[in-house]
Write a structure and sequence with these properties.
The complex is a heterodimer of chains A (500) and B (520). Chain A contains 16 helices and four strands. By secondary structure, chain A is mainly alpha-helical. In chain B, 38% of the residues lie in helices and 16% in strands. Chain B has 17 helices and 17 strands. Chain B is elongated and about 110 Å long. Chains A and B meet through α2, α4, α12, α13 and α14 of A and α1, α2, α3 and α6 of B.
Chain lengths: 500, 520
């Protein structure tokens, strides 16, 4: 029963409170930056308040949109992202991203929010299932994108970029997740059917080889572009989704073993990677050359100490590319160690919500989609933050929501939109393991098939009744009778695992 | 806005920002809690699911590692050096660190830091004289020597009292405290060090002077040397002649020549050897296939020499008879050589500073393992030739052990490091006997050229043949003979006879030390 507007408004009150606090924090932050700019002797104009204004408008827009569409998804996630995005806006403003002649930077954040809202609107209410229907469309698109970029792109700083130094490969993060989601929703059951030869457990080859072939091609193309970071992100996502989609830890074990071997080979072969590895292992070997950037970043962080001097007080200009890859070191410089801890806590909130959405997703597709988005964002965050602090080698990866970079920002917002769309129809209790839903496996203990119908929220939007029964599973529990024409999709019925 | 109020306002806004963020996080926590209460019971709300823990761990690792740079970066000396010379942020607290000075035992400054225009540079007033012992600190080329060994202490990272701890804590937390590193006092003596280098006079070589009683190093000189004030890439690319970076005193392996007879004499005394050995003029060999080992006097004068005849240990030592000691070594046998290698600490690394890396260590000698059949090898080693090698520092250490009743003390450069025993190289009785033999070398043997009326020097000359040119000139010794105050080892590469080149350098040093009152 769709609640009326007043109900929806009341239901999203926690989100509203969160967003208001975010706005307050950012206002304080802007006051800090503007104050220090003013103290340096620059006169302030009304234009200087435009970023804050756009932020406020975006938050209001997001909230009204979610209320008006009776969105029932995650409220915490919205708040956490609002904070990080605002923080990113502040950092970019502080680094002078809005001083440039092109007004594009100003529209980037509202644009990202718009994309997120579009994704939510388009795929909420279970409509995201459409995305998992044609895996090979997404797979093909991914390969074509990389191949075209390889042919037409230009080289810069050891990597390949399209015209204007934008990185279209960012879109891979979405398209590859969608490919994996579709593929695993369809073949997850078959992929979970491991065999044994000479006491060594082996994955089923028949459903695996198209995936393996796709992966070899994609990885090869990406490595030809020296995009090691993207390879790591996508490969880790593949392993996580394979394991989550099949409940076979073996994929993770074999995958990590293979990744270790492959990683060693790649580092041996590629000079670009090798130099980065050397600068990583011992930046003091060449402190004014290869080690300069990371050491300047660390110097800035050391200057920041525990608390930092506040936004606008540091000198992040001494660190090369501070705005994009090294924005985390700027946070460390101006807000100190405490600021870094706070930022990472917000990222962890996002990942925790992502994991929860995956666990509570209404169906397999939703679980895979949410898991994929979380894996991509978490890996990306770790690679960036670990690289800047010299824990892992630098991979030239941006920090989601905070780094300067149009493609990166739009991708992160799109991914988040998908995650929120999945959360709209998430149930209130965790999904049962894929094993029971995917039908009995050899050697699996027989389980009670009865499942208590969870107190599922009523769907708010029209959705296609795709209650295709997985034939192998006898469904003992009586299905809750449809109250209206719309079937309660949220009930833990065995969902469509593809055409069986 | 009133610019005077801005700093206070800034701090308030800064705190307000943090408080706001903390409130948001608290709110999120509360929402999580409420959500868990609504959902199915089972897991307490504060217990995160396993997946989240696994996901959070890498980020905890990032923060922990980040803290080791951001908060306690002062414990990373290379990092501090980099920031001091390459970070233009004026508020970087690394610029506030006043690196401690390095002093010799009389208080002479060997290294200090100077701040000029916000840039800190390290000055070495004596330039090349202490390049190896004191080392250098350079943002690009790293840190060596005492600078490296006590780096953290010099940077103020090793407080030794409560006030210093408080200072360090405030530096780490608020970054406002000007951190003053501790001064480092070395046992070196500037005057003797300079005399030693002047004695070497541009020749390649090394001088090591120790106090036998407690192992204090007063001179650690190696030539050629370099200027730590002007470090450049050429130094490391091998452009400079003579490998000036090599610390010949602690890392240069040379055949010890006749100075090794000190070791052999001690072994002979301890094995109970007494009596005489016949030393023919034509020399001694273990097999017809090998050339005879002779006494080098054989060739001098151009006329036929009758040989030493029968020699006892003391005379043979004073005259440095190769024929005698080669025979003696063969009699003692290859097992005795292995025994000597163990007792005299061959094939070891001895650290000169606490916490030094490998480059700050001193290497001792190299004693190969001789097979039972390899009698000629033993004979050669017995006169300090062939495959046996030793660093000048090791020879100084052995000499100091003789002077200290057979007990070797750990050589140490830092004045505040307590003396420590390194090993009993020989019995006190043996040490006394060998000491008397060494005194006789100077009174009536090969070293009589350096006998001075008012200082009783005991020693042993050495002339080590080598494949690269004229013989290396060695002298090891101590003074005064009755109550040894200092032990010294001098090596001059290709310097010819030990008695002619190395011995006078050692004498000048010991006499000056006596004049300065270093020998009481």
């Amino acid at each position: 029963m769709p609640p009326d507007l007043a109900q929806a408004w009341a239901l999203r009150r926690p989100e509203r409170v969160l967003l208001l606090w975010c706005l307050l924090c950012m206002a304080i932050g802007f006051a800090l930056v503007l104050g220090s700019v003013h103290a340096e002797g620059r006169t302030l104009t009304g234009n200087d308040l435009l970023p804050l204004l756009s932020y406020a408008l975006a938050l209001v827009g997001v909230h009204l949109f979610l209320v008006l569409t009776r969105f029932r998804g995650d409220q915490l996630l919205v708040g956490a992202v609002a904070f990080l995005a605002g923080f990113g806006l502040l950092a970019q403003y502080r680094l002078g991203a809005f001083n440039g002649q092109d007004g594009l930077a100003l529209y980037l954040f509202p644009g990202g929010v718009l994309v997120m809202l579009l994704a939510i609107g388009a795929f909420m209410g279970g409509r995201y299932r459409v995305l998992g229907s044609w895996p090979w469309v997404w797979g093909g698109l991914s390969l074509v994108l990389v191949a075209v970029l390889l042919v037409t792109g230009q080289r810069f700083r050891g990597g390949v970029y399209a015209a204007g130094l934008i990185t279209p490969t960012e879109a891979l993060k979405i398209s590859v997740i969608l490919f994996l989601t579709g593929y695993l929703a369809r073949y997850g059951q078959a992929l979970g059917d491991w065999g044994r030869r000479l006491y060594v457990p082996l994955p089923p080859w028949r459903p695996l080889w198209p995936l393996a072939a796709f992966w070899v091609t994609l990885t090869g193309l990406l490595l030809a572009q020296r995009d090691l970071g993207m390879v790591v992100i996508l490969s880790l996502t593949l392993l996580v989704l394979l394991t989550a989609g099949t409940r076979r830890i073996g994929y993770l074990v074999y995958g990590l073993l293979a990744a270790g071997g492959l990683g060693y080979l790649v580092i041996e072969v590629f000079e670009h990677g090798q130099r980065r590895i050397e600068a990583w292992q011992d930046p003091f070997e060449d402190p004014t050359g290869d080690g300069w950037q990371i050491l300047q970043g660390l110097s800035g962080m050391y200057s920041g100490g525990l608390w930092g001097e506040g936004f606008g007080q540091g000198s992040p200009g001494y660190t090369p590319i501070a705005g994009s890859d090294f924005v985390y070191s700027v946070v460390g410089e101006e807000l100190g160690f405490v600021g870094c801890v706070l930022v990472l806590l917000f990222f962890l909130v996002i990942f925790a919500r992502g994991l929860r959405i995956a666990r509570h997703a209404a169906d397999r597709t939703g679980m895979l989609l949410a898991g994929g988005v979380t894996a991509v964002l978490a890996t990306q965050t770790f690679l960036n933050v670990g690289g800047v602090t010299k824990l892992v080698p630098l991979t030239g990866i941006t920090l989601p929501f905070i780094s300067h970079g149009g493609a990166s920002l739009l991708t992160a917002f799109t991914a988040l939109g998908l995650l929120l769309a999945v959360s709209d129809t998430a149930t209130n209790s965790p999904r049962k393991s894929a094993q029971t839903q995917a039908g009995p496996r050899p050697k699996a203990k027989p389980r009670a098939r009865t499942r208590a119908p969870a107190p599922a929220p009523v769907p708010l939007v029209d959705e296609p009744p795709d209650e295709t029964e997985a034939g192998a599973v006898p469904h003992a529990a009586p299905k809750p009778a449809p109250r209206r024409k719309r079937a309660p999709k949220r009930a833990p019925a065995p969902e469509a695992d593809g055409p069986d | 806005m009133d610019s005077g109020a801005w700093p206070a306002l800034r701090v308030m806004l800064h705190v307000a920002f943090f408080l706001g963020v903390a409130f948001i996080l608290r709110h999120i926590l509360g929402m999580t809690r409420a959500e868990a209460a609504r959902g199915p019971q089972g897991r307490p709300w504060w217990l995160p699911p396993l997946g989240l823990v696994a996901l959070a761990l890498p980020f905890v690792a990032v923060l922990a590692y980040q803290a080791s740079w951001q908060l306690t970066g002062v414990f990373r000396p290379e990092f501090v050096a980099f920031m001091q010379s390459h970070d233009r942020r004026e508020f970087n607290p690394a610029h506030l660190i006043q690196r401690g000075r390095i002093l010799d035992h009389t208080g002479e400054v060997l290294a200090y830091s100077q701040e000029q225009g916000g840039k800190v540079s390290r000055i070495y007033p004596y330039g090349p004289a202490f390049a190896h012992a004191v080392g250098y600190t350079h943002p690009r080329f790293g840190v060596t020597g005492a600078e490296a060994a006590s780096n953290i202490r010099l940077n103020g990272g090793a407080p030794d009292n409560l006030a210093a701890w408080g200072e360090l804590g405030r530096h780490l937390l608020t970054k406002t405290k000007r951190l003053r590193g501790q001064d480092l006092v070395l046992n070196l003596d500037t005057r003797l060090q300079i005399t030693a280098l002047q004695g070497l006079g541009g020749r390649r070589g090394a001088v090591v002077m120790l106090r036998p009683r407690d192992g204090a190093i007063l001179v650690l000189a190696s030539a050629p040397t370099f200027d730590p004030n002007q470090i450049g890439p050429g130094l490391f690319l091998g452009e400079a002649p003579g490998k000036p970076l090599l610390n010949r005193a602690t890392q240069g392996f040379y055949p010890p020549g006749s100075t090794f007879k000190v070791v052999l004499a001690a072994m002979a005394v301890e094995s109970g050897f007494s009596g005489t050995l016949h030393c023919p003029a034509e020399g001694f060999t273990t097999s017809k296939r090998y050339p005879k080992i002779r006494d080098h006097e054989f060739y001098t004068g151009g006329r036929r020499w009758a040989g030493h005849g029968n020699l006892d240990l003391t005379t043979a030592f004073a005259e440095s008879s190769n024929v005698f000691f080669a025979q003696l070594g063969v009699r003692l046998g290859h097992e005795a050589m292995a025994d000597a290698a163990g007792r005299f600490g061959f094939d070891r690394q001895v650290r000169l500073y606490p916490g030094a890396d490998r480059a700050g260590n001193m290497s001792t000698g190299r004693m190969p393992h001789f097979a039972a059949k390899d009698q000629y090898g033993v004979a050669q080693a017995s006169i300090g030739q062939g495959r046996v090698l030793a660093t000048p520092a090791h020879m100084a250490l052995i000499t100091a052990a003789v002077a200290n009743g057979g007990l070797a003390m750990r050589p140490r450069l830092l004045a505040d490091e307590p003396p420590a025993q390194l090993g009993q190289y020989m019995t006190p009785a043996t040490a006394a006997r060998v000491g008397r033999m060494m005194r006789k070398v100077v009174t009536s043997g090969t070293g009589k050229g350096i006998e001075t009326p008012d200082l009783a020097i005991a020693g042993k000359t050495g002339t080590a043949e080598n494949a690269h040119g004229p013989s290396h000139s060695w002298f090891v010794g101590f003074a005064p003979a009755q109550d040894p105050g200092l032990a010294v080892a001098v090596l001059v590469e290709h310097g010819g006879y030990g008695s002619a080149t190395a011995a006078p350098i050692a004498r000048d040093l010991l006499v000056q030390a006596r004049d300065l009152g270093v020998i009481r």
